[in-house]
Design a protein that fits this description.
The chain is mainly beta and 426 residues long. 5% of the residues lie in helices and 53% in strands. It has one domain: Beta Barrel (Porin). The protein has 3 helices and 22 strands.
């Protein structure tokens, strides 16, 4: 369902959601880090642990394992180091400004609640963001004709239900109602001959849209100490589109772009499958792991700009990604629970297809965390994940195009994610 770009109550609420939205550049722009204890495990055991209310999102079937009514909430601080270094192949007319760190600090958070309905049924609700990217390169960087500022954000509300079908089998399902926002500012080259003598123009695109999908899961207890979880998150289509608005155009481009038409910028938030296992070795030690898949091949068009023929978009050449994780938990006392984990996500794009708009790559995650049982009903946790992407090479465009050729690398790219979370049984 489409929304207009005029100011509305919905757009005001979405702007507030955007302020609490995370960003990531791992296998794709999807985060496992949603301000829960999983941050300390690099998401290992994601669909099988089912030990707090955030399982509403991770695997709704896991609600059947929770005792009583529960609330889980968290706050998160993410810092990203994503800085571009142009090389000698970049068109000289674009200059040499790398744009600085395009990400920096971003906040995040989540809230989840689960309530029992009799012995076998549970209902739950989660509000969180697991999909998004925000970046700001400044006005003069070499890739300004591809992107200057960009935000692609999604905020989800997930009502869910679970049933304990047998002593060993639980089933769960829910709806994923996602409110999406797209905003892009791109410089427009008024003078491809001598950029220094003619100021750039500017193109802006903004839209918001609602998309809907499903979230389902299965949890199997393979004994008192072992359980296996499978969760499925369906695709969500966000049908973004907007008529570009321009400022500062030269006389020729002003005539060319007098009626630019509406640009289709729709994206499909990828569907995903996660298979997780959890095994308690004894009362103190537990091991867990994941294998996952995300369907990025049909992602869509989020890159826009101006070429000699007018405003244009680009279908991004993405591919499906794979995820694997291993983790462990250790309980040194009745009050403390320590966690650690490592994970790998493959890249959603080959090096030759990477763009400055969405410079994604493969990622390694390393997490550690601690939880303290304050009382029988209250648990407080602190967790940290370090995500390493390394060098992400880019070679985009050509010297003959209006936007020029941008070539170089995002060197030593990484993210640090810190989460403070609370679980309350009431």
């Amino acid at each position: 369902m489409k929304r207009s770009t005029r100011p509305t109550l919905a757009s005001a609420l979405l702007a507030g959601c955007a302020a609490l939205t995370n960003t990531a550049q791992a296998g794709g722009i999807i985060l496992y880090e949603i301000a829960t204890p999983d941050v300390g495990l690099a998401a290992a055991g994601y669909a099988a642990r089912a030990d707090d209310a955030s399982t509403v999102f991770k695997n709704p079937a896991g609600m059947s394992l929770l005792e009583g009514a529960q609330f889980q909430g968290g706050l998160q601080a993410l810092y990203g180091n994503i800085s571009f270094s142009p090389d000698a192949n970049t068109s000289p007319r674009l200059g040499a400004d790398g744009g600085g760190n395009a990400v920096g600090w971003l906040p995040g958070g989540n809230m989840s609640v689960v309530v029992p309905l009799g012995e076998r049924w549970r209902v739950g609700l989660s509000a969180l963001s697991y999909f998004g990217l925000a970046e700001d390169y400044g006005d003069d960087w070499v890739g300004r004709y591809y992107v200057q500022q960009s935000a692609l954000l999604g905020m989800s509300v997930l009502p869910s239900v679970s049933v304990q079908a047998t002593e060993w089998l639980s089933l769960g399902a829910g709806m994923n109602a996602m409110c999406g926002f797209l905003g892009t500012d791109v410089a427009v080259n008024n003078s491809p001959i001598d950029l220094r003598d003619t100021p750039d123009g500017r193109m802006e695109l903004k839209d918001q849209a609602w998309g809907f999908g499903a979230n389902a899961g299965v949890l199997i207890k393979a004994g008192e100490k072992t359980r296996v979880g499978v969760s499925y998150l369906s695709p969500v289509e966000l049908d973004f589109a907007d008529t570009p608005s321009f400022t500062g155009l030269g006389p020729i481009l002003e005539r060319v772009l007098a009626d630019p038409g509406r640009l289709d910028l729709g994206v499909t938030v990828p569907q995903s499958v996660m298979v997780s296992a959890y095994h308690a070795l004894d009362e103190r030690w537990a091991l867990m792991g994941n294998v996952g898949w995300q369907n990025w091949e049909q992602f869509g068009q989020v890159q826009a700009g101006v070429e000699s023929g007018g405003a244009t978009t680009l279908e991004l050449e993405y591919k499906d990604t794979w995820h694997g994780a291993l983790g462990a938990q250790f309980k040194p006392s009745d009050k403390w629970l320590l966690s650690a984990g490592a994970a790998y996500d493959s890249a959603a794009v080959d090096d030759e297809n990477r763009t400055v708009t969405l410079p994604m790559g493969a990622a390694w995650r390393f997490g550690f965390g601690a939880q303290y049982q304050i009382s029988k009903s209250l648990n407080l946790g602190l967790a940290q994940t370090f995500m390493w992407l390394g060098d992400l090479g880019v070679d985009q465009g050509s010297d003959l195009s209006l936007r020029g050729r941008v070539s170089g690398s995002y060197d030593d790219s990484w993210f640090s994610i810190t989460s403070l979370n609370l679980t309350w049984v009431f």
